[in-house]
Design goal:
The protein has 184 residues and is mostly helical. Helices cover 71% and strands 0% of the residues. The N terminus is likely disordered.
């Protein structure tokens, strides 16, 4: 897909942005935000966290502006960053869904092994208690209180992406803590 945009009147603005002018960069990013958001929406579909992901694309553009070489229009460059963020989000979701954390009492668990279930439950509880407070809080709200991650974000007044990141790290740490039980 070819992205058009970027006009000759943008060249001085781009040059200033590459030279470190944050105001010029902000103007460029604002000018092309709708296009970048639209491309992300095409890839990810309608999502409540699209603004958070667009913020990630904006941050990557800020970090990478010094490497912009004007081989393409600024709009193309920024849209490509947005596409990469969207694709990273898809990969992140697939990884998170690929290996769900088995919780005691979940469907498919072998009910004929109560001692193992009790050990898993005790070790899981201990591992949750060892999580850093921010990770534990999100894990508890999502898994114990069964609150949707988007609602957790609203309740804690933090971005939805932060909730997802904390949940990802909490689950990873718990998997590591229970790895010997999970591999049997």
């Amino acid at each position: 897909m070819r992205v058009t945009g970027g006009t000759s009147d943008e060249a001085p603005l781009v040059a200033r942005a590459v030279a470190g002018d944050r105001e010029a960069l902000g103007t460029l990013l604002d000018r092309h935000a709708a296009q970048a958001r639209g491309m992300m929406g095409q890839i990810l579909g309608p999502r409540a966290d699209l603004d958070d992901l667009l913020g990630e694309a904006r941050l990557r553009a800020v970090r990478g502006i010094e490497g912009f070489e004007s081989r393409s229009a600024f709009a193309t460059w920024y849209s490509q960053i947005a596409v990469h963020v969207a694709l990273s989000e898809i990969r992140r979701r697939r990884r998170a869904e690929a290996r769900p954390l088995p919780l005691p009492g979940s469907p498919g668990e072998d009910a004929s092994r109560p001692a193992e279930r009790r050990e898993l439950r005790e070790r899981l509880a201990a591992a949750v208690e060892r999580l850093p407070p921010a990770l534990r809080q999100v894990f508890d709200l999502v898994h114990r209180e069964e609150i949707a991650p988007a609602d957790v974000a609203e309740r804690l007044a933090i971005p939805a992406a932060t909730v997802r990141t904390r949940l990802f790290h909490a689950r990873r740490r718990l998997r590591e803590a229970l790895d010997d039980l999970m591999s049997e």
